[in-house]
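Intended use. Records like the one below are meant for learning the mapping from a protein sequence to its folded structure. Do not use them to infer anything beyond what is encoded.
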Amino acid sequence: MLKVEDWAEIRRLHRAEGVPIKEIARRLGVARNTVRAALNSDRPPKFERAPRGQVADAYEPQMRALLQEWPRMPAPVIAERIGWPYSLPPLRKRLALIRPEYVGIDPVDRVVYEPGRIAQCDLWFPETKVQVGAGQQGILPVLVMTLGFSRFLSAVMIPSRQGGDILSGMWSLIHGIGRVPKTLVWDREAAIGGTGKVTAPAAAFAGTLATRIKLAPPRDPEFKGMVERNNQYLETSFLPGRMFASPQDFNQQLHEWLVRANSRTVRAIQGRPVDMLEADYQAMIPLPPVTPPIGLSQRIRLGRDYYVRVDTVDYSVDPQVIGRFVDVTASPDTVTVFCDGKIVARHERSWAKQQVITDPVHATTAAKMREALATDRHRRQAVVRQHTDGHTVALRALPDYDALFGVDFNPPSTKAK
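Structure written out for the chain above:
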């Protein structure tokens, strides 16, 4: 086959220098008919290999018969049904070509984002472990939010992926921007809409902010592609080479890095997010006059073991309210317990697991209550009463019965901090 450079040289010699065909053939050592063909061709020669048959050709009619009835039948099942004797890659390759004829193609439209209209939200789990206290390390979720118009990126690490903690993170990011996007786009995160319907806490949060939460279709990450790309950007540009002494240290380093990240030029918008944020801001909804329902909360009756549990960690409560209902609220920073509207415990929240947090005042109060109870028992003296026939009957003190039956009402001190 004639080479491209020979084809080009033939045309140059004949048309630019006027060399005859016979002389060109002699100089290049090719046939005169080859020279004539090169002169008659307007395009360079292209080698094309004759098509060869493939092992899947003989099985294609059977594949199509199955796809006609079951368009989404998996390749291993098809291989079993048609008696495929080879490895799966050739079969998968042929199925990738013919399956769209039966399943159909779902095209994706380009989306134009208007200012203030949409913010995409997602959880990112950085691989680098963070020191969380008590000698523990953990991989904690980071809530990432991207504004659709300006591509402004914000993020914060939260203690867990429970609904209350996610809502606390969302409020922190929205409050930091200063206004509310009209739509918050989420995938089907369990605490937000794992069943395909927005959960009650998330709906209450959105209602307070006068916005709405829109759930992405299942198995469709492209629906919120902006925040997915930013997750990858965080993974490759923020995380490498960093160490974190605590979640607070992580958030501090992240905050400093985000200032630079939002000052870079984003090719998709041909501008810097920090410069375009103002247009987003002006089109958003004002912040509500009250804080939306966020954080973890529960209502329980406080038992003799005067501790409440929040995300695997136990926190002490004033033992004077044992037996009464208490309301427990937990933000990412603080755990607070109320009884009849009065604060009966306040602790800094621990992000470690399986810890026991005791306020020394609570432990001292419990010790005094046990001591007072023991003293009261021992002070009880035997009393007498009149029997129906007139003689007196002695009544033993209750501690005597405790000693008789081996009951100890003075247990050792409760859990230490």
